[in-house]
Amino acid sequence: MVITMISHKLSCYASIIVVVVPFLARLAASDVLWQECDSSQNYTANSPFQSNLKQLSTTLPTEASSSATLFATAAVGAIPDTVYALTLCRGDTNNASACNVCVSNAFRDAQQVCAYNMDVAVYYDPCYLRFSNQNFLTSIDNTKRHIMPNGENVTALAATFDAAVGVLLAAVADYAALNDSSSSRYYGTGVEDFDDENDVPRIYALAQCTPDMAPADCRRCLEGIVKVMPKHFSRRQGGRILGLRCNYRFELYPPFSGAPLLHLPAPASGETPTTDGVSSALAFTLVCFGVWSSRRHQRLSSLPYSRNWESAPSINLSFLGLSTLEIATENFAERNKLGEGGFGAVYKGALPDGQEIAVKRLSQGSAQGIGELKTELILVAKLQHKNLVRLIGVCLEEHEKLVIYEYMPNRSLDTILFDPEKSKDLDWGKRLKIINGIARGLQYVHEDSQLKIIHRDLKASNVLLDSDLNPKISDFGLARLCQGDQSKDVTNRVVGTFGYMAPEYVVRGHYSTKSDVFSFGILILEIITGRRNCGSYNSEQSVDLLTLKP
């Protein structure tokens, strides 16, 4: 009887142990945000794999915490008992011992919550770890990721909030990816002012990649998880995506230590950014606000990316999906091509509502073209004048870089002015109208707009004509922004079109608003005479207009 009772109690205790021990293991590892346990392959106690794992648990925390990047990978043992491991501490960790402790705890907890599993990943707020019997170290795959939304929702200005989060995440992703320092942690943080009146004064975000990735791979990895933000975190006050190769987080409070590395101002009051083609919108942010990326040897914290242009109007563009533009241009059909320049082609298209557009398609791999695209988006999107070409939207999807402008039926001035037949339609009244319109556009960018801009490439082919022959200055890819009261500057890289450039700019690199006025003077002579200026084109029709005598 007694033996029977003891046997029954032992059986009950065994049942309790089976249930409670795993629970206690998870309780001991309560700081784990997420664990991934692959139970398809297991090791046994005292096996060579466990011995190799034990060795790694001793060496890898020290390697990571002593590294400037707080990152380490290793492989220990011979196949089939090799243990491959990767660990990364968060980029704002300034205490090496804290990184060491986190990684050490990760090894301990991984063997508790995923006991005897050979492929395990554990994530904490300050670090994460993965080890496996399969070599994953050469792969930058980030498809195994965990979505963690904040349980609270934003009630006011929800659509604007989601768009603002997208802008901030893309900006922080750029910062993380484009820091070229050899000791870079591929880590970025930022804050964006939002709306004090609705108890959402600021939005904070961080992003990070493993430092063994190339900058472009890091940016692609982050873009892959940023673009799904609307799907998983719409109207959420915060959220994070955990991945082995890259991750991000946003909250209404700082989820990081120290001051944010970026500070973005609030969206303009009452504006709700268009969200058609969300991945385009987020990719656009990297271009639109990534001015500093061409200055690849400067510290990012000192660059003008902070978007701290309080006096300038906020950018307000539509973000169009690639499929929309493929339909609009009939898949970029050759018959719709309006022209082709050094950095790509321009196509005519029509949106579903019937609006005609011109789509500039940047050639893939054109680094210089990307730099000019950034400049144009930053400047033209902030300029509004009847004599400047209107920028409608942008799309950057699937390696395409597309900018959408209003369509000008009469194309560029040079196609009419220098054509023996078409130029006959330009009577003196129309020529004067074109000259006056160009002058008004120049006055606006030089004096009347909140941004003082020097175009640096004013010429006949960069003046577009609408159906009524109203001129609109276009192509601001070479333009320069003058800060404050600055009206002149010096450059070591002279760009533009010979024949239109002022002598002091060609010889000494000095440019100013007067440089544009010189180009305008040449353009006036061309409009009056109908002849190309010598040096601006390789043509038998060109003459040296500056030496012409009445």
Automatic annotation (TrEMBL):
Residues 332-550 form the Protein kinase domain. Coiled coil: none annotated. SMART domains: S_TKc. In the N-terminal section; belongs to the leguminous lectin family. In the C-terminal section; belongs to the protein kinase superfamily. Ser/Thr protein kinase family. InterPro entries: GNK2 (IPR002902), GNK2_sf (IPR038408), Kinase-like_dom_sf (IPR011009), Prot_kinase_dom (IPR000719), Protein_kinase_ATP_BS (IPR017441), Ser-Thr/Tyr_kinase_cat_dom (IPR001245), Ser/Thr_kinase_AS (IPR008271). GO terms for cellular component: plasma membrane. One of its GO terms (molecular function) is ATP binding. Its main location: membrane. Keywords: ATP-binding, Cell membrane, Glycoprotein, Kinase, Membrane, Nucleotide-binding, Phosphoprotein, Receptor, Repeat, Serine/threonine-protein kinase, Signal, Transferase, Transmembrane, Transmembrane helix. This is Uncharacterized protein. The lineage of its organism: Eukaryota, Viridiplantae, Streptophyta, Embryophyta, Tracheophyta. Residues 31-136, 142-255 form the Gnk2-homologous domain. The keyword Oxidoreductase does not apply. GO terms for biological process: defense response to oomycetes. Signal peptide: none annotated. Gene3D superfamilies: Gnk2 domain, C-X8-C-X2-C motif, Phosphorylase Kinase, domain 1, Transferase(Phosphotransferase) domain 1. It is found in: Cell membrane. It is a single-pass type I membrane protein.
